[in-house]
Design brief:
single chain; alpha+beta; two-stranded antiparallel ribbon; 3 helices
Length: about 70
């Protein structure tokens, strides 16, 4: 099975797996573009959480640099 990469906003990942977290993320985080190697349809909840955590850390680090 050959699945192509898919680019989605972090908001789509949060909505699919952890909709309760929407209120915890800011607009910039939710609008982050995430490239998924195997697409959104086969993304596992553990992987989704890891992506969300990484994105939050990246935005916090860039906020500290400004």
């Amino acid at each position: 099975m050959d699945v192509e990469m898919e680019t989605v906003k972090l908001e789509r990942i949060v909505m699919k797996w952890f909709p309760d977290m929407l209120a915890c993320l800011n607009e910039r985080e939710l609008n982050s573009m995430i490239v998924l190697r195997d697409g959104l349809t086969i993304l596992e909840p553990e992987d989704a959480m890891e992506i969300i955590q990484f994105s939050i850390c990246e935005h916090q680090n860039s906020a500290l640099l400004h």
